[in-house]
Amino acid sequence: MFPQILFQNKRVRIIFSNLVLSLLLLVTPLIGDRWVYFYILLLSITSYFLTSWSFKQYLYGIKLVNLFVLPVFLVASVAIFLVQSDISFWLQLLVVLAFAVVNYVIELSQNIFNVSEVRNIPLLRAAQTVGYLSTLGVSFLGFFLIYNSHMSVFMSSFLVLVISFFIYLQALWQIELKENLSPEVLQGSLVSSLLTSQIGFIIGFWPLTPVGAGLALTTVVYTCLGLVQHKIKDSVTRRTVMEYVFLGLSVFALLIVVLSG
Q1: What residue ranges do the domains of the chain occupy?
Q2: Where are the transmembrane segments (predicted)?
Q3: Which of 18, 31, 81, 118 is the 20 to 30 A CA-CA neighbour of 205?
Q4: 103: Cα within 13 Å, side-chain hemisphere
């Protein structure tokens, strides 16, 4: 009876979900090479269902996808990072603790998006800021891990295409928060992810470190997101386009010069 009453609180469910995921993440480096990526797949699926259990209400339409992109991508990325990196248990514990804090904040913001589609929430603007920053952070981690895996440029660019599409999709949807995708959001996600993938393909031939490649593609995400968001809001001006393009190209060029391997 007590657990049933306790888990009626949404924040308690979110905290419990993060605790379970954190414990499962700590086990990841102990899984053998043969089964580790299958385990990470199961961990990602577990993250989806635990997060949906945490939210419970108002889950329908495109929210069944967009609300879970960041939580699922984050847990999968952290798990792969723990597998790829050769760090001590205490550093692994620190990484998992950081994951728990970040994922908790992400899930709180996603919950606000979930409820805001039904009724007005005063914290919506703050949640959108958190969502934007989380999008950039998860993008960097995902791109870094792709290029740290040293796979072929074709496979790398394909993975960049898939990941960036869902990254753009959920980020642009946060502007409208509708039950169904608008043509502007879908078109913007497709074009932006194709552009990001093409640049990722080119980066594969340059002597960039994985960190440099991750930061470079995150700069592309930042630029595309900014421009498409202004287009959806119908607030695009010549000055806005020039500012985003200039900043994006400047940072991109600086990263290539400084972080080349």
Answers
A1: 1-121, 134-261
A2: 12-31, 37-55, 64-83, 89-106, 126-147, 153-173, 185-206, 212-229, 241-260
A3: 81
A4: 31
Question: Scanning the structure block, which residue is given the tokens 């339409």?
Answer: 61
Give residue-wise pLDDT tens across range 4-17. Answer: 555 677 888 999 99
Token pair of 257, please? 């010069």
Letter for the amino acid at 194?
Answer: L
Contact (CB, 8 A) for 22 and 92:
no
pTM of the predicted model, to two decimals? 0.91
Amino acid occupying residue 71: P
The pLDDT score that the predictor gives to residue 2 is 46
* Residue recorded with tokens 């809001």: 233
Task: Answer yes or no: is pLDDT of 231 > 90.
Answer: no
Q: Left (φ > 0), alpha (ψ -120 to 50) or beta: where does 234 sit?
A: left
pLDDT tens profile 192-217: 999 999 999 988 888 888 988 898 89
Q: Give the pair of three-digit tokens for residue 3.
A: 């657990």
Name the average pLDDT for the chain: 88
